[in-house]
Predict the structure of histidine kinase.
Amino acid sequence: MKWRNGSLRRRLVIWLLIPLLVISSLMLLEVRSNAVKSTNQAFDRALLSSALAIADRVVLIGGKIEVDVPYVALEMLTSAAEDRVFYQVSTGQGEFITGYEDLPPVPERLLPLREEPVFYDAVYNGEQVRIGALSRYVASVRKATRFQVLVAETMGTRTSLSEDILASAAARQIVLIMLAAIIVWFGIGQGLKPLTRLEEALNRRSPTDLRPILHDVPTEVRHLVGAINQLFGRLENSLKTMQRFTADAAHQLRTPLAALRTQAELGQRESEPEKLHQIMATIASSTRQTSHLANQLLASARAAPEGLAGRPFEKIDLCEITRAVTSTKVPAALESGIDLGYEGLTEPTYIMGDATLIEELLKNLVHNALIYCPEGSAVTVRLENDFKDDVVRLTVEDNGPGIPVEHHKDVFKRFYRMNDAGQEEGCGLGLSIVKEIAARHETKVKLSQPQGHGGCVFSVKFKRCQ
């Protein structure tokens, strides 16, 4: 199992233990240093006492230094059976007087010796020893001279004591780390209980229940729950779009498909060529109308704001799209005897939007104008700047029969057709698609009548971008 896919509880415990172990190691190093320092301070006092006791027994007789070593002073250092004590008395010039002649001398960094005693570590006969050194004056009637006393002790007891202190501290640290790990392990379990309850609640939901999650959750996962709620919202919108498309398709396609089937069955039984030709023409017309209806249903599903809420916009050239769509509609306009043209901007005009949806919007506006305008009419597609509001306005204007004012609000409804429309190709979806695409781009489509003549003017404003 990969680390990032492992248990959250285990990962948190490990992330806690690693710093604790590092900190505990540093603390134990400090404990060891303090233990050695404290042990040396305690035992160095005994070394100093022995050195002072020996120094008190140094006398100057006849110009020579003599020492009567008090062995009782040395015996108090050998309380532990494994430790041994060594001593040395020498003149200030380093001449040996008594004791162990080969004891390690005082390091140069501690020289010259003054009244204050010094202590240092050394190796003697292959063993670690701690040595205390002091220097004193001895005088007689005719002479005064300086001497030094060294007292050394093996470090068995010192080492054992410092190791015991370190072991005791390490044991406490281990117990503390184990307790912390156990507390965190169960604490995280308690902290994750709200997520467990959330999981159970989600498992009890039906596949169509996409209501927002309203459970109380820890602060750290609120953003995650918010993201899930947003996903639920998008899924619900997509589901509504699919359901609406399915219902519309089932309702609108049932009748023309039934008519096609009836015409086909009549054609199978008809033997007269003239009547058979008429039936085939009816089938062709019904097929075109059904195909147009299916395309409009698909376009409506794509244009629905709730269906494409998560699709990001891009920077597109509205001028290029407008001129390209107008050009593609020219052959159909010529076939219907309608003058279709473009006016306005020719330089690149950028907006943030969906190029496919903008093309669909313009195609529907031009298509409506072409099918409802009689022969000899004129349809103009216009793109112009509106500097007052810093927008660009797309307009489709015609001089056809127009739409009565009382129908202006209703023509944008789905499947709405005026009683006198009289056009077989219309299915009542074109303008509703235009309205939905405009809403997707946070704008509105406006319907008005040109001044001085009949017809319609459809205009949509888009925000410019650099």
Observations:
- The first helix runs from residue 8 to 56.
- DSSP finds nine helices and 14 strands in the chain.
- The radius of gyration is 51 Å.
